[in-house]
Amino acid sequence: MEKLTDVISSRLESIKTSHLLCFVVISVEIITAIMNSIMGVIWLGHFSHELILVGTIDAFVGVIVVAPIAISINEKVVRLKTLNEVLSESIESSKRVENELRASQEELRKLSSHLQSVREEERSRIAREIHDELGQALTAIKMDVAWLKKRLDGKDAVLSEKAAATMKIIDGTIQSVKRIATELRPGVLDHLGLAAAVEWAVREFENRTGIKCSMLLEPEEFEIDKRLSTDIFRILQESLTNVMRHASATKVDVSLKAYDDVLELVIKDNGRGITKEKISDPSSFGLLGIKERVNFWNGVFDICCPEQGGTEIRVRVPTRQLENKVL
Q1: What is the mean pLDDT of the chain?
Q2: Residues 239 and 197 grouped into a single domain
Q3: Based on the structure, what is the number of domains in the chain?
């Protein structure tokens, strides 16, 4: 639209030039009529009615021919000015709407990140309560049952076996509590950092699914923003979950690299790959969640199917100026 207004402006300038030319033509015709009268006096020594008549007719014809053109040009100038004003207002309105939309998207992105942070805090709180409260209660119950079993040994075989079975159930429940608390918020992420948490998550995934995994960490230890560490870890978890559910893969390669103020996470499997329709599907909430996490950090998210098959997810996030990302 801006180019169109430029064209209109140039047209207005050309029309102004044409209008000026018409005025000059009319003026020349009138001057010509006057000059004819003067020349009649000089050449003939008296006023020549014929020359005066010719000059008058010439000027009159010039005015009749040129005047409608000048009027038509004036009308076009007015219409083009009006159109130019309308287009200028439309451009300003479009820019204003675009700025408002951009601001709204940024607010939604910040809100999404804030909700993610709140959810992570709530996960941490629930994980601590489960570990501390349920863990301690189950441990106390296990000690009491062990005490009962010890008293029943040799006295009541049936009750002794029941106590032993109860202890096995308690042991299984304790392990479940630990697993649930760890899945809610792995303590290794808070205490040992992102690299150790990624290594733990990959090994757990391999043990749980039987899918062979390889891992590359460069460097093996590094420190980054805690919130960014959480987002990268959750992206890894979501990616591995997708591999387990949809890929039918037998091998997964994971790499985490920190270099030149950039953090790069790559997850690649040898499964059946992902379709373009699935990538753009608005109901693929896992991928949408990954995109939102990456966008908040002004990073780049790419998912593709390499020629050799499978699916590759690549996330690159700048680690510079993280202090500006304060909610």
Answers
A1: 77
A2: yes
A3: 3
Pick 59 or 260 by higher pLDDT: 260
- Around 43, how many Cα atoms within 13 Å sit in the side-chain half-sphere? 8
The DSSP string of 14-64 is HHHHHHHHHHHHHHHHHHHHHHHHHHHHHHHSS--HHHHHHHHHHHHHHHH
Contact 68, 26 (CB under 8 A): no
- Please indicate, yes or no, whether residues 176 and 279 belong to a single structural domain of this protein: no
Please report the pLDDT score of residue 54 as a whole number.
54
Give the up-direction half-sphere exposure of residue 79: CA atoms within 13 A in the CB hemisphere.
8
Same domain, yes or no: 275 and 194: yes
- Given a cut of 50, whether residue 4 has pLDDT beyond it is no
Q: In terms of domains, do 252 and 272 share one?
A: yes
Secondary structure (DSSP) of 186-237:
-HHHHHT-HHHHHHHHHHHHHHHH--EEEEEEESS-----HHHHHHHHHHHH
pLDDT digits (tens, 9 = 90+) for 271-281: 888 878 887 77
| Domain boundary pick from 109, 138, 163 | 109
Q: What is the DSSP letter of 310?
A: S
Examine the domain organization and report whether 62 and 179 are in the same domain: no
Per-residue confidence (pLDDT) for residue 8, from 0 to 100: 46
Per DSSP, the three-state class of 248 is: coil
User: Which structural domain, as residue segments, surrounds residue 142?
Assistant: 118-183
pLDDT digits (tens, 9 = 90+) for 173-183: 888 888 888 77
Which of the pair, 18 or 167, is modelled with greater confidence? 167
User: Are the C-beta atoms of 236 and 198 separated by less than 8 Å?
Assistant: yes
CA distances from 115 to 111, 119, 227, 232 (A): 6, 6, 12, 16
Do 295 and 195 lie in a common domain? yes
Cβ atoms of 142 and 174 within 8 Å: the answer is yes
Residues 210 and 319 in one domain: yes
CA 70 – CA 75 distance, rounded (Å): 9
Maximum alpha-carbon separation in the chain: 160
